[in-house]
Amino acid sequence: MSRQEEIRAELFEHTLNGHAPEVKALTEEALLLGMDPMDILFKALIPSLEEVGRRFEKGDFFVPEMLIAARAMQGALVILRPLIAETGAKPVGRYVIGTVKGDIHDIGKNLCVIMLEGAGFEVYDLGVNTPPEKFVEAVQKHEPDIVGFSAFLTTTMPMFKANIDALSKAGLRDKVHIAVGGAPVTQEYAKHVGADSYAPDASMATRMAKQLVGDRSGPSKGAEALEQAVMKIDETLRKG
Ligand code: B12
After folding, report:
1. Which of 46, 96, 140, 157 has the smallest C-beta neighbourhood within 10 Å, fewest atoms?
2. Superfamily of domain 3-86 in the CATH hierarchy
3. Tell me: the pLDDT tens digits for 97-126?
4. What value does the mean pLDDT take over residues 130-140?
């Protein structure tokens, strides 16, 4: 096994067990070895959080374990964020995004924000537990190309429909592309509620968004937004 493979495996284990100092040290070592930040994120950190979820489902993990694991991952994100920002391409359009009402999961959404900003989108992040009227207000105010709803609980997924209905009622439905995502969401569900697109991860969400808006350009505020995204992860995790 190469040292890079070992690092991925160790990052997976230490994130799973919430060992923040080890996760930080391994992330730094990985970067020194020239590993790609996206590789570290998508091949070690995210799979580990997925395993956390599986264990929670089986009853082997409880909320505190989920929280410590997420916190350990956050330590790595602090290091990775400026590097991911550097990979940012040409600026493209406006994106309003938020986690739906009743749901406080935001790591997945924040990763989308990181990547969208890195790709040059102007992102308006409405945070977590966002009621339909907040989405309507933001779409009216910012006139985004895309509005994205994030949900991580099967019980909050129906908020997609509530949000879409609220946009329709406000006469905005046809003025904005609606994207949905989050761990339990599927393409079928997205279609069922009348969303325009679904993406299983942040890179696909970004690729689809870029495709949708074409080649328009403008200034990128990537670094600043990445800072905010990571601070938000931090803030949420600290609240527990
Ligand atoms: C970390 C975590 C927590 C943390 C959240 C911290 C935070 N700040 O987000 C805490 C501890 C607070 C938490 C709480 C709870 N959680 Co929780 N949690 C998780 C866990 C382990 C990881 C979630 C995560 O962040 N994944 C990492 C990201 C990167 O996931 P991802 O899906 O790959 O994200 C990508 C895509 O979804 C996509 N995407 C995301 N949003 C969007 C939006 C758009 C527009 C697009 C296009 C794409 C997109 O891009 C993302 C990046 O690539 C999951 C397990 C899992 N495997 O998902 C459970 C999980 C989501 N939680 C679960 C549960 C039950 C809960 C609680 C109800 C537990 C409780 N009894 O209190 C509470 C709910 C609180 C609430 N009201 O929201 C269940 C949900 C079950 C279900 N089917 O509904 C899960 C699945 C665990 C399980 N297997 O049972 N949780």
Report:
1. 140
2. Methionine synthase domain (1.10.1240.10)
3. 999 999 999 888 988 887 787 666 888 999
4. 98
d(CA 52, CA 204): 23
CA distances for 9 relative to 1, 3, 26, angstroms: 10, 10, 10
Please work out whether the CB of residue 84 comes within 6 Å of at least one atom of ligand 1.
Answer: no
Which is nearest to 232 in space by CA: 134, 128, 88? 128
Per residue in 50-80, pLDDT (tens digit) is 888 788 888 898 878 888 888 888 889 889 8
Tell me how far the alpha carbon of residue 231 lies from the centroid of ligand 1, in angstroms.
Answer: 18
Is any ligand 1 atom within 6 A of the Cβ of residue 82?
no
- What number does the ligand 1 atom closest to the CA of 63 have? 11
Per domain, the residue ranges of the chain are 3-86, 94-239
Find the 131 Cα to ligand 1 centroid distance in Å.
Answer: 18
Indicate the fold that domain 94-239 takes in CATH. Rossmann fold (3.40.50)
| Tens digits of residue pLDDT in 208-221 | 998 888 744 333 34
DSSP-derived 3-state class of residue 125: strand
178's tokens: 């609606």
CA dihedral 50, 192, 194, 225 (to 10 degrees): 0
Residue 155 phi, psi (nearest 5): -75, -20
Strands laid side by side in the 146-150 sheet:
122-125, 94-99, 146-150, 177-181, 197-198
Write the CB contacts of 211 (distance below 8 Å, at least 6 apart in sequence): none
